[in-house]
Amino acid sequence: MISLTSERRTPYHSWPAGPKLLGLSAFTLAIFYMNGIALSAAVMGAVIAAYLVGGLAFAREGLRFLRPVLVFVAIILVWHLAVGRVAEGVVIVLRLLAAIAAANLVTLTTRMEDMLDVIQRTLAKIGVPPATRRRFALSVALVVRFTPVLVQKGGLLVEAWRARTVKRPGWRLVLPFALLAIDDAEQTAEALKARGGVM
């Protein structure tokens, strides 16, 4: 099964997937009620400490997954600086980083099979048919797996563009990025068909 689970073992790997996903949901909801830079920074510090429990190598791995978000962080900060609301921008950035870092922590320490099992059991409790449960679980797996891959490929496209010209890429990369996504989708569909599809 496709997975982004870290090979570096941490205490979190042994925690059940259900409580981790429930805790992540509660944490993500709670941080959007935070007010003030001090509280937001404290929560972000707690997330960093949670990573450090797994060791420095694991923390560096988690930091690497935050790199694609830094572009959005810069845009948010520049915008709020321009409108004279820097404190509000800092709080938003800290909320964003804390939420994404926490989600990455759960993803890195939870097997995909375990997460999908939780999703299917939850859907079963509300009466969703088995075939629909499996399809929905597979769609979640594909989104989790391919989102970072597409982000990485988008970054490579930007780097390739910058190597050829000093002009900003902008909309010119939309078509090649879309073609990359379509190509990945076709290859995935062929792989699923080769394995018998989704019943």
From TrEMBL:
Q: Does the keyword Membrane apply?
A: yes
Please name the Pfam families in this protein's record.
CbiQ
Q: Where in the cell is it found?
A: Membrane
Which InterPro entries does the entry link to? ABC/ECF_trnsptr_transmembrane (IPR003339)
Q: How does it sit in the membrane?
A: Multi-pass membrane protein
Q: Does the keyword Transmembrane helix apply?
A: yes
The protein's UniProt keywords, in alphabetical order, are:
Membrane, Transmembrane, Transmembrane helix
* Record's GO cellular component terms: plasma membrane
Entry's transmembrane regions: 30-53, 65-83, 89-108
According to the UniProt entry, the coiled-coil residues are none
Family, per entry: Belongs to the CbiQ family.
What's the protein here called?
A: Energy-coupling factor transporter transmembrane protein EcfT
What is the organism of origin for this protein? Thalassobius vesicularis
